[in-house]
Specification:
With about 325 residues, the protein is α/β, with parallel strands linked by helices. It is about 40% helix and about 20% strand. The mean pLDDT is about 95.
């Protein structure tokens, strides 16, 4: 499979701009650059309703943004996806992923609740994990006020957010609920030892470099030992049985590709209904580049359709 022409053009444009790498610029500059690149996102769609609120987190108020899809009943208890943004646990926020959450809400005819979990290095592992779990539990406990259906809650996210979603699903299973309808994982980093062929094959020249992967990991973890903790590397969990159905999406020219495939295989072996889809010609982060890559819109559509399948299963 060849690199998608739109992805190739984007990478050539990026190479011509020659921006400093994330490790070279440091945390605050990296956050500013990532936020500035938000203009590569797909256009911002109108939704039926959007508002900000706060969950109760272990570190204090946990900001959330609630979206209700266009055409939904304002009083209906909608199914909901709790969404964790990507950005290596360091960059990214509710604003950078606002267009994606809007599209998911509209296409899946559901609510989406985006979580501003605490970021590293100020808040290292496991604090972002604690926030992801706390936000999901708070959503379930406040379903009536949020006008959502507590029996139809999914978790999901892209990149680092996808990893947080996987861990949240395992933790909620182990604590006995609330049960989740689905986990939607977009190129998730699920093994922070990062020892796969895709980490070597796409270490340079495809957007997310291996040096950047290691830099993000080092901002997130307290020390190297944390990489062996399944809450940081969920592929290393001991038991994948009885987890919610999964939709896992990867990109063919992504350092993280093989991890997503390995996680899909682990779930499948454990009897978890799992759909795996690789966008072969794409690069890491492509769903945030919808102004330049048509595949971003297709990917969001596929995720939303997967959500609709579990939220509103066909009649038997």
């Amino acid at each position: 499979m060849n690199l998608d022409p739109q992805a190739r053009a984007f990478l050539e444009q990026l190479a011509a701009a020659n921006p400093p790498s994330y490790p070279a610029m440091g945390v605050q500059a990296a956050r500013q650059l990532y936020a500035a690149r938000a203009d590569t996102n797909m256009p911002t769609a109108e939704v039926a309703e959007v508002y900000d609120t706060n969950a109760e987190g272990r570190g204090g108020p946990l900001p959330l943004r609630v979206y209700r899809g266009i055409g939904t009943d304002s009083e209906a208890a909608l199914p909901v996806m709790v969404y964790f943004h990507g950005g290596g646990w360091v960059v990214g926020d509710i604003e950078t992923h606002d267009p994606i959450c809007r599209e998911l809400a509209n296409i899946a005819h559901c609510a989406v609740i985006s979580v501003a979990y605490r970021r590293s290095p100020e808040h290292k592992f496991p604090e972002p994990v604690e926030d992801a779990v706390a936000a999901t539990l708070w959503v379930a406990s406040n379903a009536k006020a949020l006008r959502i259906d507590p029996t139809r809650i999914a978790v999901g996210g892209d990149s680092a957010g996808g990893a947080l979603a996987t861990v949240t699903a395992i933790i909620l299973r182990d604590r006995g609920g609330p049960p989740l309808a689905m986990q939607a994982l977009i190129y998730p980093p699920v093994d922070l030892l990062s020892d796969t062929d895709s980490h070597r094959d796409y270490a340079e020249g495809y957007g997310l470099t291996r040096d950047s992967v290691l830099w993000f990991r080092n901002q997130y973890l307290r020390d190297e030992r944390d990489a062996y903790d399944w809450r940081a590397s969920p592929l290393r969990a001991l038991d994948f049985r009885n987890l919610p159905p999964a939709y896992i999406l990867t990109a063919g020219f992504d350092t993280l590709r093989d991890e997503g495939l390995l996680y899909a295989e682990a779930l499948h072996r454990a009897g978890v209904p799992t759909t795996y889809e690789c966008f072969e010609g794409m690069i890491h982060g492509f769903i945030n580049i919808g102004r330049y890559m048509s595949a971003a819109h297709h990917a969001v559509y596929r995720i939303a359709q997967a959500l609709k399948t579990v939220f509103d299963p066909p009649l038997q």
